[in-house]
């Protein structure tokens, strides 16, 4: 069985995080992933604190295992969200869109593990100095807001730059990806797109169907001109955004066009006019299945891949 420092740090059975995705990672999915031995993570997005507390209570009513909350530091409710996390003594938080440094001391006081998402070595170094417990190195293959470096070059550079555990994210869908991440020096993986097709995920079935129909080239990047690029499945909305960018529309106007589009897709099921944030691995997602089964499939295929490599290269490290 594959065990790493990450398992010991968080108290989870398998080194698998489910990415905290806004309008996607609700209590139902999070509890199912945690019950399955991974770490389920609530995606708080720009939701108010009361919504987050409700989802936390939902998770606690289903499982006693560790879970997490993803905090978008640019949220207008970030201070209230952090207060809920402190009051509920959430075991783990992951963060994005900013530096969580000022919150680290208070989170440490209640025993919360702080694991930011990074897209560069420089930020990884700064956050280690700020006292975070681990880092998620996320490559641009991932869905949603992305950086400019791919997972393969990013992960080993971050691993070499810090001493705390690193979780690889972006472009990972099965056990082969887990083994590859471990070979790069990571202590585990974070996955989002595959868990969107978990039975317990409450997003629209129409979105799940679009993921299942996706091919290797089905995702596109929009918003580069705004400084906040986003990877989504190609649809009418992304093509309109691309056209507006080509015509030179101001970044502020482009950002306004994106408001509410994620909810439009994930909750309301408008797969043409909404934003379907998904990673490049969408083309490798084959079916809808329980979250626990997804985790077991990843671990089983990782073991088989390790055995295959051992048989091919002998009993030496590959």
UniProtKB/TrEMBL annotation:
SUPFAM superfamilies: Inosine monophosphate dehydrogenase (IMPDH). Keywords: Flavoprotein, FMN, Oxidoreductase. Gene3D superfamilies: Aldolase class I. Pfam families: NMO. GO terms for molecular function: nitronate monooxygenase activity. InterPro entries: Aldolase_TIM (IPR013785), Enoyl_ACP_red-II_put (IPR017569), NMO (IPR004136). It comes from the Bacteria. Nitronate monooxygenase that uses molecular oxygen to catalyze the oxidative denitrification of alkyl nitronates. Acts on propionate 3-nitronate (P3N), the presumed physiological substrate. Probably functions in the detoxification of P3N, a metabolic poison produced by plants and fungi as a defense mechanism. This is Probable nitronate monooxygenase. It comes from Desulfosporosinus hippei DSM 8344.
